Amino acid sequence: MSGMSLHGAGLGLRREHLADLRVAIPDAIDFFELAPENWLEMGGAWRKNLRHIAEHRPIVAHGLSLNLGGPAPLDEVFLKRVKRFLDGHGVGLYTEHLSWCADGGQLYDLLPIPFTHDAVRYVADRIRRTQAILQRRIAIENASFYLAPAIAEMSEIEFIRAILGEADCDLHLDVNNVYVNSVNFAFDPREFIDAMPGERIVYLHMAGHYREADDLIIDSHGADVIDPVWALLDHAYARFGVRPTLLERDFNIPPLARLLPEIERIRSLQQQHTAAQRHAAQA
Description:
The chain is an alpha/beta fold.
């Protein structure tokens, strides 16, 4: 495991930026995140570049295909490969989506899990098995979705909290996903964030999105973060304290320099809240 602690503001690692990062990693970037599925088979120059970055910054792994809520058996062979990757690159944190994405093959979409008691037990069991294989706690990310599950015995908030408790895992809070769902399903995003168990929140995501209509947002990760999402991050820090926070940019990827102001804005918010909390503790 890496001796580097995870803190501050991070950026999703993109191949488009590797040449610049090989020359110099900007001070504003405290860590990087990658999808292990995209790197497991990489060798040669790609692996050398990743090794160079891992020697200078912590790496977070954010999975895309574990299919925690899907009907197929958990892919334990894949998980063992992921463990070797995490150990080999000193990755301390692995997170996955609270969703399902495969049914006899990859669906290339993240679909909501029915909010039922049976689903809580099913998903929690798969998370516990995942943690046993990886030999580390994982964090699950609240997902964005566009159709409510056909079966619901509880709210999304109750569903997330129940799985966290049953599986004894951590929470990866995606602030933009909360905002997207709040527009698509007409709820108060601050109340949603307030209802999350702060003691389990270890990691946050920020991202941009695409507004299809007044009541429909698509979670694209292809645009700048908008002010209401920044306000939600500010609220989350005020409610729970500062946590490591990543800027996601998966499409319409601009030059690295173009993303630095948003990363610096995350760091600035973190510094403001850290200073305020320190002042309050001394008062």
